[in-house]
Design a protein that fits this description.
alpha/beta, 4-stranded mixed beta sheet, 6 helices, 9 strands, about 40% helix
């Protein structure tokens, strides 16, 4: 009879480990899937978690302190075996036209009757990557991948001159792009992974500081300079 008792105890033990692991995983996902960022950012975060991307490699809503004391706000970063994936999330409807090296892209609505310009997200995310690279010496030698994700009822009608290691993608195909990057790229040569994780974790923590958020918002408004226009 003793061996039956041992088998039962082993079954109960492995069941407990499985349940605990699932609970811990759900707690981690809940912690990550906070109210920070936009709804589309949170949708992307949820999709990455459900696809099996480890939660400890995902960093959402980062406020990176730059050398001049200002902050760079980055939507989402994934630290992967092949390098650092930096995401810029956009919510748009209509037709999207853009050229990789031109400062302005165009959104077209109502069958061409309405046109709106917006800042080139490729250049925007390239600046985020540049700000990241300046933080640590080892990041100068780590591959970076820029991923611009469009949510909403938009159509990437004509996008050209997309730089190497940069991807412009509708939200429904993001996992396809990530699998391509992860499967076709060589492993990155990290010299100190903990140093990078500490940097990214601190950037996320900065986003919990109301003073930092207010300062960043003020800097953006000052850069746009709309309050200095008198019509």
């Amino acid at each position: 009879m003793w061996y039956i008792i041992i088998i039962i105890l082993l079954i109960l033990f492995f069941w407990f480990i499985k349940v605990k692991s699932k609970v811990d995983s759900n707690q981690t996902e809940t912690d990550l899937e906070s109210k920070r960022g936009t709804q589309s950012e949170r949708a992307l975060l949820s999709k990455l978690l459900k696809s099996g991307i480890p939660s400890q490699t995902i960093f959402h809503d980062l406020y990176l302190r730059k050398n001049n004391g200002n902050y760079s706000q980055i939507d989402l970063v994934v630290a992967s075996k092949v390098g650092i994936l930096v995401f810029e999330v956009k919510d748009f409807s209509g037709w999207i036209f853009g050229t990789g090296y031109k400062p302005q892209w165009t959104q077209v609505l109502n069958s061409g009757r309405d046109k709106y310009n917006f800042y080139n997200p490729i250049l925007q995310n390239a600046k985020h990557i540049d700000d990241l690279k300046k933080q640590l010496k080892q990041l100068e030698n780590i591959p970076f991948y820029s991923i611009i994700v469009f949510y909403g009822d938009s159509n990437l009608k004509e996008i050209s001159f997309v730089p190497k290691d940069t991807y412009v993608v509708k939200s429904g195909r993001i996992l396809e792009v990530m699998n391509k990057i992860l499967s076709e790229s060589m492993p990155a040569n990290y010299s100190n992974k903990r140093e990078i994780v500490n940097l990214l974790e601190q950037a996320v923590k900065n986003g919990e500081n109301k003073e930092i958020i207010e300062r960043h918002s003020k800097n953006i408004k000052d850069m746009l300079g709309k309050e200095r226009v008198y019509n």
